[in-house]
């Protein structure tokens, strides 16, 4: 039985000029998703933020020239996407995944190829071991088929083993592959054919990385974060200790998503991670019904509509607040140290306005002197 879900589509499409400016901004030095959002919120538009970057970096203490992605660079990437049959979707646009829009530090732009409407449907993540057992792959495929028949898109990471089984089982009902590299650099190579099957049918490939970006080991946690952010819940099937699947589970828990874990033999190293998740409170999963019953309350129309309750970074034409003076800036810097602290605590400690504190944090961030830890925590980077 298919879900009767029609989540409200809010948002405004970016113009071509805005999309180029957004691409330039997110591809510039030291501008991550959280910094991007703060810049838009402070300066109103990506174009205004781009003009301010060099001065912000200088005030933050940088002694090097600040690299800003050029319009030519952005136009070249847009052309590469077009040739590849892909599009960029901004966080404020209707086709952006609504659950992903909720999380702190959501990617401002996603590259997408395939059945774009899959991004707006409720999703279940399924991940697990690359060297999956036959029974593990069979169970993952069963959950994927049953969840697909119930109306869920299956999101995974295109890896060998459990990911592959989940994608293949949901080719007809809808599946999303989150990639660690650019859309034109899928990994592993043996799943390129599977990805082509997905994107030519009911499936979708998504990435926040530039075209041409070859995935490195440090890029895969970012992909795992994407899987957890897109999904309402994540099912872990066979995960060893210290595996990427456990990173996905941790992100899911941080985002308030449901975490399902399939118990396994304590003698099988592939099950040590999932068994530990069960000890930590993950939902015991021995059938598809365990997953579908837990997800059902989250897919009511009114709850899905509320997924879009947070206002994304949307451009406006307001005038940016005045910058703090040197004394105020020093008070903010002195409140920081190597120990992560909440931004709200800095505001209370310094008795300065939120806009002043956020601006100085932006300056430090762009100068490479700030470390963001998520959940509103920041610290100074240790001096070399």
Question: Characteristics of this structure?
Answer:
384 residues; 12 strands; single chain; alpha/beta; 42% helix; Arc Repressor Mutant, subunit A; disordered N terminus
Write the layout of secondary structure elements.
Blueprint: H1 16-26, H2 33-43, H3 46-59, H4 71-84, E1 87-90, H5 98-101, E2 109-114, E3 123-128, H6 134-149, E4 153-156, H7 162-169, E5 175-178, H8 192-199, E6 204-207, H9 220-230, E7 233-237, H10 244-254, E8 258-261, H11 272-279, E9 283-284, H12 288-295, H13 301-306, H14 326-334, E10 341-342, H15 343-350, H16 354-366, E11 370-374, E12 377-380
Helix pairs in contact: 1-3, 1-4, 2-16, 3-16, 6-7, 9-10, 14-16
Task: Please provide a brief summary of the model.
This protein is of the alpha/beta class. The chain has helices at 16-26, 33-43, 46-59, 71-84, 98-101, 134-149, 162-169, 192-199, 220-230, 244-254, 272-279, 288-295, 301-306, 326-334, 343-350, 354-366, and strands at residues 87-90, 109-114, 123-128, 153-156, 175-178, 204-207, 233-237, 258-261, 283-284, 341-342, 370-374, 377-380. Helix content is 42%, strand content 13%.
């Amino acid at each position: 039985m298919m879900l009767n879900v029609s989540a409200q589509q809010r948002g405004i499409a970016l113009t071509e000029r805005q999309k180029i400016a957004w691409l330039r901004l997110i591809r510039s030095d030291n501008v991550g998703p959280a910094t991007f959002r703060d810049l838009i919120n402070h300066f109103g538009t990506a174009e205004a933020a781009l003009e301010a970057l060099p001065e912000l970096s200088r005030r933050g203490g940088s002694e090097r020239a600040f690299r800003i992605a050029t319009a030519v660079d952005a136009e070249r990437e847009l052309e590469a996407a077009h040739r590849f049959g892909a599009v960029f979707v901004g966080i404020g646009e209707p086709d952006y995944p609504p659950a992903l829009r909720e999380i702190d530090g959501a990617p401002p732009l996603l590259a997408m190829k395939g059945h774009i409407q899959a991004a707006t449907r409720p999703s279940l993540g399924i991940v697990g071991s690359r060297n999956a057992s036959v029974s593990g792959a069979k169970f993952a495929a069963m959950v994927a088929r049953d969840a697909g028949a119930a109306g869920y898109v299956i999101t995974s990471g295109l890896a060998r083993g459990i990911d592959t089984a989940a994608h293949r089982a949901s080719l007809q009902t809808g599946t999303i592959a989150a990639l660690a590299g650019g859309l034109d650099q899928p990994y592993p190579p043996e799943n390129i054919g599977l990805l082509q099957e997905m994107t030519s049918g009911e499936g979708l490939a998504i990435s926040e990385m530039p075209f041409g970006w070859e995935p490195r080991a440090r890029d895969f946690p970012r992909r795992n974060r994407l899987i957890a952010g897109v999904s309402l819940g994540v099912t872990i099937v066979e995960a060893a200790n210290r595996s990427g699947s456990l990173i996905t589970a941790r992100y899911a828990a941080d985002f308030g998503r449901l975490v399902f874990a399939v118990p396994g033999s304590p003698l099988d190293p592939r099950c040590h991670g999932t068994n530990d998740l069960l000890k930590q409170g993950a939902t015991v999963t021995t059938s598809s019904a365990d997953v579908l019953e837990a997800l059902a309350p989250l897919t009511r129309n009114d709850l899905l509509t509320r997924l879009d309750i947070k206002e994304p970074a949307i451009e406006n034409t307001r005038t940016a607040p005045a910058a703090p003076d040197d004394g105020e800036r020093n008070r903010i810097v002195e409140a920081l140290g190597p120990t992560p602290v909440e931004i709200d605590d800095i505001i209370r400690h310094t008795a300065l306005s939120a806009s002043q504190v956020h601006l100085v944090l932006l300056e430090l961030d762009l100068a490479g002197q700030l470390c963001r830890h998520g959940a509103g925590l920041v610290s100074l980077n240790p001096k070399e």
